[in-house]
Amino acid sequence: NPPAPPVSQPAKYNPEPNTDTAPLVNPFIDYPQPTDAAPALEVKVYTKPLKAPNGQFWPKTAAYIPGYPIRMEDGLSEVTIDNTRNNSDVFVKLFRLGANGAKTTIRQVFIPAFSQFTMQDIRAGRYDIRYQDLDNGAFSKTESFTLEEIPIYNGTQYSQYSLTLYKVANGNMQIQDISATEFQ
Fold this sequence. Notes:
The protein is elongated. It starts with 62 loop residues before the first strand and ends with a helix. By secondary structure, it is mainly beta. Strand 6 and strand 7 form a beta hairpin. The protein has one helix spanning 180-183, and strands at 63-64, 77-83, 90-97, 103-111, 115-122, 125-133, 139-142, 145-147, 149-152, 155-158, 160-164, 175-178.
């Protein structure tokens, strides 16, 4: 009779470390194996904020956002933001542009979808408008523009500027995408 083949016995776990041999490996644990696979890509999902960055709830209608200052309100000029054909709420900032690239936020406005808002009593100067689409998080800005106040024989002629936040055939303003940092 040939001898019986050897029977394989399960490895036994030894809770006592053995310093004379290699590090203890528990055969009952499935240790991760090295891999050459690329790490998984992190997907960021944008969630529409319930509040403005200053912690205030967005106004119910188109309005200045409570808690933010209204600056340079000693002028006559007006800026209207028309969001009436856009189905996204927007957070709008009006920036005064100074020398050497300096900029100052002078107005911060919430404009719901299908609404518009007019900022009044703005001092003459050079400006741009930056806004965030609150449905997708995208940031955009306009070209710079100038608001003027010109004395005339019976008063002052002033600028009434209007910006539409939807594509207009033969429109007069170019909009460009910007980063969140440029929105600050």
